[in-house]
Amino acid sequence: MGQLGFSYVGLVFLLMLFIPNAIWTRRQPEGYSTSNENKILLVFEKVGQVCVTCVALIFSDFNISRLMLWDLWLLAAFAVMLMYELWWIRYFRSDKSLKDFYSPFCGVPVAGATLPVIAFFLLGIYGKVIWMLIAVTVLGIGHIGIHLQHLREIGR
Question: Taking Cα atoms as reference points, which of 155, 17, 8, 126 lies closest to residue 82?
Answer without folding.
Answer: 17
